[in-house]
Amino acid sequence: MSLDLAPITDSPPVSTSLTPWNWARKRLFNTWYNIILTIAALLAIGLGLKGFLVWATTQAQWAVVSNNLKLFVAGRFPDPLLWRLWIILGVIIGLSGLTWGKLQAKERLWTRDRLLIAAGIAVAIGLIPISFASRLISGGLLLLLLVAFWLGRLLPSRFNRWLAVAWALSFPLVFWLLRGGFGLQEVQTTDWSGLLLTLLGAVIGIAFAFPLGVLLALGRQSTLPIVRLFSTLFIEVMRGLPLIGVLFIGLVMLPLLLPPEWGQPDQLLRGLVGLILFSAAYIAEVVRGGLQSVPRGQLEAARALGLNPLLVIGLILLPQALRTVIPALVGEFVSLFKETTLLSVFGLIELLGISASILANPDYVGRYVEVYLFAGGLYWIFCYVMSIASQRLENSLGVDQR
Amino acid sequence: MAIQVFGFKNALGLLRDVRFWRIVGQLFFVLFLVWLGTTLWHNLTLNLQKAGIQIGLNFIQSQASFDIGERIITYSPTDSFGRALFVGFVNTLRVTGIGMVLATLLGLVIGLARLSDNWLIEQLAKLYVEVFRNTPLLLQLFFWYFAGFAKLPSIDSNTPPSSLFYLTNRGLALTWVSATAATGIWIGLLTLATLIAIGLWQWRRWLRIERGVASRTWLWAGGAIGLGIILAFAITRASPFEWNVPRLNATELEGGLQISPEFTSLLLGVTFFIASFIAEIVRAGIQSVPKGQWEAAKSLGLKPGVMLSKVILPQALRVIIPPLTSQYLNLAKGTSLAIAIGYPDIYFVANTIFNQTGRVVEVMLILMASYLGVNLIISLIMNLVNYSFQIKER
Amino acid sequence: MNSRPSLRFKPQSTNVLRNWLSISTIALLTALAGCAASNNQSQTASSPAASASPAASSPAASASPVQVEPTGLLAQVLSRSKIICGTSGKVPGFSFVNTQGEYSGFDVDICRAVAVAVFNDPSKVEFRQLSAAQRFTSSQTGSIDIISQTATVTISRESTVGVAFGPVILYDGQGLMVKKNSGITKIEQLAGKSVCVQTGSTTILNLTDQFRKRGIAYKPVSFDDNNATFAAYQQGRCEAVTADRSGLVSNRSKLPNPDEHTILDIVLSKEPLAPGVKQGDPQWANVLNWVVYVLIQADEFGITSKNVDQIAQSTKDPDIRRFLGLEGDLGKGLALKNDYALQVIKQIGNYSEVYDRNLGKDSPLKLERGPNKLWTDGGLLYSPPFR
Questions:
Q1: Nearest Cα to Cα of residue A361 among C96, C282, C17
Q2: CATH numeric code, B81-172+259-389
Q3: Of residues C13, C128, C141, nearest to A190 (C-beta)
Q4: Same domain, C358 and C258
Q5: Using a CB-CB distance cutoff of 8 angstroms, which residues of chain B are in contact with residue C212?
Q6: Shortest CB distance from C30 goes to which of B32, B47, B52?
Q7: Which has the closest alpha carbon to C232: B252, B154, B95?
Q8: Closest to B143 (Cα-Cα) out of A377, A49, A244
Q9: In chain A, which residue's Cα lies nearest the Cα of B285?
Q10: Domain boundaries along the sequence of chain A
Q11: Which residue on chain A is closest to B125 by alpha carbon?
């Protein structure tokens, strides 16, 4: 095993100035053991790829995925009400496009990456086996994304606030469309399932676990001994338990702890409470790292300027603390996203749970590889996009530069 | 100050004194916690009373009457619930311990591969990290168990009656050693011989350094061990152990070292998952070693292996160990997902007991204590390790 | 941000900040907790008023002297205007999600029958899928109103787990399923072999007992989930799989080649399956009991969903008239409507209809009635008189 001498830096790769042959000699065949390694790796890749392609095209029966696409994505959400999910998707895509455009307003409009991604999505919409109407709507949504992105670049900065307001308003709107009521047909929370539930659980989980985690981190840093003790105890106990145990407490034991006349809080709610408390403890530790990295002088300076304590926390302490821990924070969000799978152990049918249900269908017995590859692929895409987005965010906030 | 509290003038001052509010605030917080605690406890007893359940740990001693498929300590259905929980606990420790070793080795290899100057190896390592880090552990477990082991050959008429190793969908069976009457004597004598060999080695080395005598350490040490072997053979006139070759009895594998699909899947799952995180930690740790250290080691003419083990890794470890500890803790907690694929770890056993007895609260407390115990042990050991790698100022 | 001893004497700027920080933390935590509490209270307080359905208000409105007021769980159910029913959701014939996305099966129909009795509407049930281990704790904690999940009645479940079982709806026995070509016919032949079993149910206990009785060693491979158990068996992980015989039949129908598997002619244990409720609420337990008895009694009277209206109009038999609520106050005594039996039969059917539809001759499972015939036909089904 040989190692790069230089630590990886942001300097442009040297290979650009090399001819392909020289590059290969330098990066693949420079020493005798690298030659062996390269050839072995090429062989392994070749055989593995061939085996997979042969299996995927001849043996695999992808009908289990294509026939159940709706179940995977929207679960048991009633068919006649699917339009509500499309609207939600439209709202979120529109807002994301605007925000994305705003964030990258100073960059070039069409980079190669962006065009490639858009083209890739367009091809995917054309290829996946969905009804013509769904394909049309998906295409429309892609167009919406691009238009919103373009508009977002043009918006003057005074619209920033409105964008934030729009995001805030979108949450009740989404919840209304999902749950029904107020003139819409109601949908039981037990009918929220599949990828829909996974995403919903992750978003709600992050939205509540993050502020709670920040509070716990502040509590752990406090000089008040009781607050500190409580926060520390909470964080350490939560971090010491496996999530499955915490969910058991939330789903099975919580009703025992509530007054009998309260009845039964929603099962999904109880599951999410467990997930949130668990993740908050981890987020708190990450945030604590950030708080410790803020120089003392910053606080003293802010205080000297006469800012009141809440403003000091909100304007001086947290922005600096959180910026330094963005990668770790996103890492925790990705973990939370992955950990929503554990809800399936307790009968909440998220993406993995619906996969198990589909595998229980007599028509698709034994199609484990196809189903798990598909579900795994979906999870992977979301987690990977989150980590990429965190890198972008980190760069645009210039964490390294300060 | 406490006496002045009752004076009017001071009371106003008190209200403006931040120290006063500190105490009052905390007092309210304590009151709130106490109120919360008593309310929850009251509800709990009320609810359990309604369901006709008494809280108490006596049930631990009643007979479990269910069997546990996989165990490394003796257990029978006539044993108590407590014993069953302990069997589960040992199973958890087993998979955690082996998983930690394997995940560390794999993580180290992948982490080093991420820094390889071979482009292909670097990309493969990156692919590994991105795939395993970005998919849920539970899904990976399902994949290994239902998609991985299912594809292995099943035991049928084509399976050979005896083989050095079996790889089937009922698990692995490897040829292993089993003890005979002579094993004890062999082990005793060999241990003695090894100790003598080490002593001789040190002595010869000391002679070479101090007196300049040709050392021939290998000869002396090897001689001592050889003598031990000859002696042991002379006494026992038997080999130290027997080969235990797995064989097929009708449709079940017998003999050898048997590893169940459940255990293997869980082990593979947590190992591959945690190794992807360890790889990133190793990479970051090695990158944290200043470039000058590499150059200095190279200029001293150290071979790559020596350079890595004597110069780079000891320094990188200081950065690596703290996050590594938390990955070990994650691994220990991750094994609780065993319930999904039927490996009887402590959570699995506890879950069975919940159902047989309805003792939710007690079993949950035992479960919490066990996991906190495992975490404490891991943290303690890792803190010791961390301490030994810290820079020692002389 | 370590606190230094010197700060105690001179509260410096940062110290003040930290105080505020902590106090605000407390305030926020308290506020959060307060909000949560008040939300919940307001919900429970407002919901009875907001959702007073006609069904819920009618018992109170008809101020008959014998009309019993709903209390406890029944009152809760009425104010919620739906029943929460815990079921497995994964066992064909008993409870599963059909292609239309609706729950269906034997266990499901029991819950629907209760919904008809309480609300006169079979759709007012919310089904929750529970794992075997979850079902009793869920009922203890009151997160579900009825467990209808092929649960075996045992003494310890009633005495220590805290479940009050209703009448037995299916007399079953635990069986073993093996591959036909394995040639196994007796338990003894399973010595040293692996048997797949679902944990968290009586199945694993019976299995252990049977092997202990014969002094044979075996390897249990246990799972928490019914699907996982049969998936492992199907893959060849185990030589045999054990479950209730009805469960074996229904799960065999899900295997790729059902004919290759055979259910041994061995009964490992008695498995009387019954729905259950939480202990300590006699009124709610009565509702469940006498809804199940309606199914059985209707079968005995020969009343079906097809002829119930006609019989109600024409019958002179005082037994039947009382049963259907045409005279007397049997329904009111349960805090239900007097004609609840008539509605249950009309909308759900009698026992035979429910059985045949889900498990018997009209279903893909074609399970024999066996002991689940009426006592008049030599079976075990017997309803106490409606009087």
A1: C96
A2: 1.10.3720.10
A3: C128
A4: no
A5: 77-78
A6: B32
A7: B154
A8: A377
A9: A7
A10: 14-59, 78-186, 192-402
A11: A41
Burial annotation B52-91 (CB, 10 A radius, 16+ → b, else e): bbeeeeebbeeebbbbbbbbeeebebebebbbbbbbbbeb
**Inter-chain contact A256–B47, Cβ cutoff 8 Å?**
yes
At residue B254, the 3 state secondary structure works out as: strand
Q: Which of C209, C244, C271 is the last residue of a domain?
A: C271
| d(C-alpha B367, C-alpha A113), whole Å | 50
Residues C162 and C292 both lie in one domain: yes
| Stretch among A185-194, A335-344, B98-107, B375-384 having the lowest mean pLDDT | A185-194
Instruction: State whether C144 and C217 are in the same domain.
Output: no
Domain spanning A192-402, CATH class: mainly alpha
Chain A residues touching residue B95 (CB < 8 angstroms): none
Q: Which pLDDT value is given to residue C310?
A: 92
* Shared domain check, C130 and C155: yes
Could you please report the per-residue DSSP string of A235-302? HHHHHHS-HHHHHHIIIIIHHHHS-GGG----HHHHHHHHHHHHHHHHHHHHHHHHHHHS-HHHHHHH
Instruction: Looking at C120-157, list the stretches that DSSP marks H as alpha helix, in order from N- to C-terminal side.
Output: 134-140, 155-156
Write the CATH number for C192: 3.40.190.10
Mean pLDDT for the stretch of residues B143-165:
79
Neighbours of chain B (3+ CB pairs under 8 A): A, C
Quick one: average pLDDT of B48-71? 80
- ipTM of model over 0.90: no
Which helix (H) or strand (E) segment holds residue A233: the answer is helix A225-240
Task: Indicate whether C206 and C217 sit together in one domain.
Answer: yes
The pTM assigned to this predicted structure is 0.80
- Minimum-distance CB partner of A380 among B47, B134, B146: B134
A196 contact C CB<8A: no
Domain that includes residue C236, residue range: 173-271
Specify the DSSP element, H or E, that contains A165: helix A160-179
> Structural domain tally of chain C?
2
